[in-house]
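Q: Could you write out the predicted structure for this multi-component system? I'm mainly interested in how the pieces pack against one another.
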Amino acid sequence: MLSIQKFYRNQNLISSVNNLLVYYKLKHKQIDSRIEEDKISIDKKSVIDFLKSLEILVESIENNSTKPLTGTDERMRSFAKKFVAAKRKKNKFRSFLFNNDISELEKLILTEELLSSEKVLESLKELNTLLEEESSLNFREITGEI
Amino acid sequence: MLEILYTNNHDLFREIEIGKDHIESQPIPSELEPYKEWLLNYFRKLETRIQDNFYLLSLEEDDIFSEIYSWTLQVTKELRVLNSEFLTPLYRYNKFDNLCLKLLKWLHDQHLQSKDCIFALSHGDFAITAHRKLLIYALPSSSRQDILHLPLFFHEYGHYLFSYHEQEMIELIADVQKKLQEEIVVPFQENNARSQHEIEKNKIIIETWYSWMEELFCDAIGLHIGGISYLHTFSLYLRTNGNSAFYYPEEALAKSSHPVSWLRVIFLVERAKKLGFVEDAQKILIDWENIAGLLGINQNYHGYYRQSYKPYITKALDDMLEEANPISFRDYICNIDNFNPKHNNFIELANWAWQKYFSDVESFIEEEKQIIEHYKMDL
């Protein structure tokens, strides 16, 4: 049960991040992405909400890794631990998100003119990389491997 | 890259069309119509995604290839998950599902939270997959014809109520975890290997209680809805699971999503006694103690559970139950001496079944067959 729930939560989030990436990359080039602005507002909110939940857990792990992560399910706990581990992989995760407080990226996402900046787009791309790693694990748990 | 993405999207598009044709040609009862419609809409949503991918590919913009690849990957994975998890309930349908389908529709209709839920049945051990308003219940094939097993659906429905009230549930569980932390974490510890091991173990215990609380909550829901029928079913179904129903080694506890069944029985028995089922509950507790004695097992939860945790766990479960506000067996049992299938009161059915089973097994088996036959014809 948990695998399917986790799988869909990740899928929705990956889709939101993809929408933001495509929308702002093409907007920058003045090309119509055919993604509606209302949809972009919803996607922004989903990403910000997720980052806020992640931020609390990441701070807790970084301040005291032995402190239990309470009031959260296994999916968020596990993702927060992977995120902290990814921050240490400087050669793979180099973007702004992995080198600053998560709240800094939230501020940038909320500032329309900064959203299409390279550091935001790179950060979102790397966030998706981590989400897709997680999604592939859930996917294999559900369907097995050929 | 452009060619790879075009080819895979074309292939996915064909797969979606085939999937839609299969679903549309599948004969099903009216109870499953909303599920069939949901599946078709899901396929249409994927179809739209592929069409969007074709549009984006037509732009030939290299710097969005990675996002198009990601979306192609998403559709691929979702189609595989649809095939492995969501199409089976439609293809496996037969008339023996009718009783369970009626029961679940009835249960959903009794609660405001689930009146508009879409649901289906799948096979496997009792479980539920809840994705927003979509619920897929699994049960073993033989249980479809075993009325004594049906109250386990009440537990599974509890998982849906948990997800529906998730924010409030999280807060209540966080309070329990905070109390556990106050109780088991020593504020100042030495910096040696033994202390580090203790700190790590306590952390795992506290985190493990998140999913344990959900399971104990679902048991409380099962009892609240099904009355004593739930406890009888739970005991019958799990007590022959051998050692693992009574004891987990420490390393298994650390990875567990469910508390040891014996512990669940202890919580259920206490709650059942408060509901007035003193005699039945006590007998079930003794049954479990007898089996544990036979297996030579004593209660040992390696610190994951202590008697001192009980008051605040029970209090939190009471609060969670109040938040979820499920129907109570008390409002549904009028006459369990003679069950009338035409009334479709499934709490009455479950309690009638256990009463009849205890009083006269032979005639229970006979009447059970007639009831199942009635529902087989009735959808």
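A: Regarding packing and overall arrangement: The mean pLDDT of chain A is 87.
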